[in-house]
Amino acid sequence: GEDGRMGISTDLQPVSGSDTLYKLYVGGGIKARDIKVKSNLWADYVFDNKYKLMPITELEDFIKRNKHLPGIPSANEIENNDGFEVGAMQQKLLEKIEEQSLYIINLQKQIDELKKLVNKNK
């Protein structure tokens, strides 16, 4: 259209609200070999020594209370917001993977210490 927006298999092109920020509207699925999402924020900050990893007991409590991971929108939030931004979600998912890696490393250190104690007491 004249405003730079385009629809494929749809007549729906919002005229107000946050959906007007988008340039392409598709009335169906999209299949592609590759999609590149430009992002200025990536989750490497998780590996910075200043990053505060939530204690695992607090993580467990959060999950029990909220039924989703901290920093990740709930199913209701996704539904109420009519979806999610792929780039932002990829960043958040990578953040969670990196946090899980740190939890695993910490657990392995605890296991190694316990093995030393067991072997010492044999």
Features:
5% strand; 3 helices; two-stranded parallel sheet
Describe the overall structure:
There is one protein chain. With 122 residues, the protein is mostly helical. The protein folds into two domains: 30 residues, no CATH class; 83 residues, no CATH class. It contains three helices and two strands. A two-stranded parallel ribbon has the order 1-2. The radius of gyration is 22 Å and the shape is elongated. The chain starts with 5 loop residues before the first strand and ends with a helix. The mean pLDDT is 90.
Domain count: the total is 2
Radius of gyration: 22 Å
Q: What sequence of helices (H) and strands (E) makes up the elements?
A: EEHHH
The helix fraction, in percent, is 40-55%
Main sheet record: 2 strands, parallel
Number of helices: 3
- Give the neighbour order of strands across the main sheet: 1-2
Structural class: mainly alpha
Count of strand segments: 2
The portion of residues forming beta strands comes to: under 5%
Reconstruct the topology from this structure.
Elements: E1 6-8, E2 24-26, H1 56-66, H2 75-80, H3 86-120
Parallel strand pairs: 1-2
Task: Describe, in short, the structure shown.
The protein is mainly α and 122 residues long. It has helices spanning 56-66, 75-80, 86-120, and strands spanning 6-8, 24-26. Strands 1-2 form a two-stranded parallel sheet.
